Amino acid sequence: MRKVGLKVRTAGMALALVALVGGCTSIRDHRGYLIDQTLLDSVQPGIDNRLSVEKTLGRPTFESQFGQKDWYYISQTVKTPPFRSARTAEQTVLRVRFDPAGNVVGVDKRGLEQVARLDPDGHTTPTLGRHRSLLEDLFGNIGAVGTGGAGTAPQGPGPNGS
């Protein structure tokens, strides 16, 4: 009877360990446009126009606001490791360029190489100037402010005396 209890306890601990380790896997999530390469290849410069691109690829993720009204389709795959923040693993940006008449001029495809990685320096922004401690901030002005000019009227034509 004791051996059976030991086997059940060992099996239960192994099962709990597997469940614990299984919870430490990364989560993959897709965001944005789902790219179908066959549909993308069917968009031809000089043949298609805005209406045919919309019927083939659907509405764009966004449209450029300045210059030519290019259409952008954004697709991202994001990985979230356990106990960490999400990070973009793959990204594709499709840009469909149109001429002023609304005909397709070209289709550009860019990936993650165009993404700029920013590495912030902690929770502070470095600035020029003196670094002061809390006590210097609290007591630094004691004796530095004089009483000259207290109670005198401003000089000059403006409201501040200038």
UniProtKB/TrEMBL annotation:
One family name in Pfam for this protein: BamE
Keyword Signal: yes
Annotated Outer membrane protein assembly factor BamE domain residues: 32-105
Keywords: Membrane, Signal
Taxonomy, superkingdom: Bacteria
Protein name: Outer membrane protein assembly factor BamE
Protein species of origin: Novosphingobium soli
